[in-house]
Amino acid sequence: SGEAAVAHAWWREPAERSRLLDIAAEATPRYVYHLPTVRQQARELKSLAAVDRLHYAVKANTHPAILRALAAEGFAFECVSPGELESVSAGVPADVPLLFTPNFASRADFERGLATRATITLDALHPVEYWGELFRGREIVLRVDLGRGLGHHEKVRTGGSGSKFGLPVEQLDVFLRHADAHGVVVRGLHAHLGSGVLDAKHWGEVYSQLASLAERIGSIAFLNIGGGLGVPSHPGEAKLDITALDKVLREVKAAYPHYQLWMEPGRYLVADAGVLLARVTQTKGKGSWRYLGVDTGMNSLIRPALYDAWHEIVNLSRLDEPSDALFQVVGPICESGDVLGSDRRLPEPRESDVILIAQTGAYGKVMSSPYNLRGETEEVVLDN
Ligand code: LLP
């Protein structure tokens, strides 16, 4: 059943659980975000002594209260679209640094990005080859492809030959020639290989590879080793070891103290902070399966359908009852893939019970859709 699989199951605390049941009594489906958990995760990452600047990858969750909480913790922000840039610019103090890291952006997107205070990341020849005058006199960041990708699912790997991201290192000299011709200075190097990585060694490898490339280039002041910091989701998966990460980063920094070190985590900060509350609609026996239906599905949370992602599911109304029945937990969407959890051991449910889907603070609401015109899933923020 995934007992204790989630690192910060704040919602198991009796007081939080009863707050959640009250919130669900008003309306479901609803996402609920617990800001103390966001702050706790933020402080853990702030303990990384080698890291000079942490950017929150806002694509994971763009709720304004989360942006404000992380700005208050001293985070900078990483945005991938003009829309993200504009909403972050409006929501955080004007002195907070921003990064714009788009992929296959249009010329118009770059024009909008350049109109903000963000530092721009390029990851292809095309912008410097054809739109060089846009970036004239600018300091930019170059995202490279280190030739490999990794992550919790094939679809979240962002490096290697099967991925559309990053400048292949073989094109570095050509890129630098175009940049030079337009007076564009490459001040930073960036790599992000994928999402949901639990092995601390990974970032040490990226860091030292970027540092040795930087030695070749000469104009580099900082290295952005990306995000991708995973949280354990399956029962039995080990947590990312932050102390080990601190150690590997400090080792590389000792060899290359002349570069600033930047990171840009998304999921790690917000995944555990969010839960999705839904209500039991119907149950059904069919063949060897029992189905437990709830009032939202892949329209609110697409990760199980898209990545086979595993989210812990509990019956919040019956947390103390024995879980002795097996269910397919499904939503109301007209797709066979609308399964939130397969083979889940849960207590015998009743209509209107509140079902909690855990670890949905990252890539939940932001990836939701109006499919089947089920309506928007509301968001509620909890703070102390
Ligand atoms: N930096 C860059 C350049 C990225 O592309 C991403 C994520 C991040 C940072 C933040 O990665 P994180 O720390 O959150 O792993 N929708 C997928 C994840 C896609 C991630 C896309 N890029 C999921 O639900 O697992």
From TrEMBL:
Cite the Orn/DAP/Arg decarboxylase 2 N-terminal domain residue spans from the record.
Answer: 38-271
Protein name in UniProt: Diaminopimelate decarboxylase
Species name: Rhodanobacter hydrolyticus
